[in-house]
């Protein structure tokens, strides 16, 4: 697949993603006070994942650490993913609208919040008639030992947020993940008939680093072309918006320790380009609230996202 040199600012993308991985792993913002008692990382066996379909991108070049999983905040996370997979969550045929969403969990490209930002989101979409596909994309290698991994995250956070780097280099460093996202779109379109999906009604929603991947997939490639995109607590740096940019949904908590005080350039960029955009700024919620039940209005983001999909016609069959 051919990759364009992106005409938009990506200088924040990879270095900030790496740093926020450490933040998300070490601060209680990921889950909030209700789950603080579960903030320790505990290794677990790799889930069976019988329905996961390996993508055509193959194994991560040069990888030595095998895939591993752990629990934290009452949820499960994957690390050292070396082969990307896509797991379908299909609605009942009587409910199917023909729309589909590729779901990209976050984790700073060093881990993946597979349950809170993946499976739970996909199940909720399928329950409303939208086919969902959880993308387990390849990750940067981290120490195989979980304690060493946690130590590396603390060291990363202690160095503070990175300075901006060359945007072309940052984009190139995301090449494996963008390739995985494109392969996911290709797979869904190739099996659209089997999965009762309309090839032209496939969107993507991502969380944190997954939101970064969603934005890069939508703006920097030629063959994925999401019909719509969702950016849930990802960076909101300004970009150059193409004339045919898809409708954008954004949700962020004002008290997000990573992006709550970094401005709303992305929203302004979409607005100036006269492209559809909906922005929900919640008073509280922290970072990584996902599908966790919390006593904050941020818990309502999914219902808002579903209503937004309905407004654009994706909650009913064509």
TrEMBL record:
Family annotation (InterPro entries): AB_hydrolase_fold (IPR029058), Dienelactn_hydro (IPR002925), GDXG_lipolytic_enzyme (IPR050300)
Signal peptide positions on this chain: 1-36
Domain Dienelactone hydrolase: 107-290
Keywords, comma-separated and alphabetical: Hydrolase, Signal
Pfam families per UniProt: DLH
PANTHER family: AB HYDROLASE SUPERFAMILY PROTEIN C4A8.06C (PTHR48081), PEPTIDASE S9 PROLYL OLIGOPEPTIDASE CATALYTIC DOMAIN-CONTAINING PROTEIN (PTHR48081:SF6)
Name of the protein: Acetyl esterase/lipase
């Amino acid at each position: 697949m051919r990759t364009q040199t992106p005409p938009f600012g990506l200088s924040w993308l990879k270095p900030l993603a790496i740093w926020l991985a450490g933040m998300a792993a070490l601060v209680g913002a990921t889950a909030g006070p209700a789950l603080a008692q579960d903030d320790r990382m505990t290794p677990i066996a790799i889930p069976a994942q019988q329905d996961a379909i390996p993508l055509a991108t193959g194994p991560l070049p040069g990888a030595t650490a095998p895939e591993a999983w752990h629990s934290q905040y009452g949820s499960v996370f994957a690390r050292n993913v070396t082969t990307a997979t896509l797991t379908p969550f299909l609605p009942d045929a009587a409910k199917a609208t023909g729309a589909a969403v590729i779901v990209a969990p976050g984790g700073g490209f060093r881990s993946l919040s597979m349950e809170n930002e993946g499976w739970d989101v996909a199940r909720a979409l399928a329950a409303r008639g939208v086919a969902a596909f959880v993308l387990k994309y390849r990750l940067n290698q981290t120490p195989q030992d979980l304690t060493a991994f946690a130590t590396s995250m603390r060291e990363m956070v202690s160095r503070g947020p990175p300075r901006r780097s060359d945007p072309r280099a940052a984009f190139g460093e995301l090449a494996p993940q963008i390739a995985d996202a494109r392969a996911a779109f290709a797979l869904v379109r190739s099996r659209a008939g089997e999965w009762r999906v309309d090839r032209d009604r496939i969107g993507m929603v991502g969380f944190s680093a997954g939101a970064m991947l969603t934005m890069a997939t939508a703006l920097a490639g030629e063959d994925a072309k999401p019909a719509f995109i969702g950016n849930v607590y990802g960076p909101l740096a300004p970009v150059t918006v193409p004339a045919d940019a898809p409708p954008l949904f954004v949700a962020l908590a004002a008290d997000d320790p990573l992006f709550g005080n970094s401005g709303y350039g992305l929203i302004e960029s979409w607005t100036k380009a006269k492209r559809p955009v909906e922005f929900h700024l919640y008073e509280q919620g922290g970072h990584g609230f996902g599908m966790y039940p919390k006593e904050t209005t941020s818990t309502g983001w999914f219902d808002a996202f579903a209503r937004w999909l309905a407004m654009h016609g994706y909650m009913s069959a064509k």
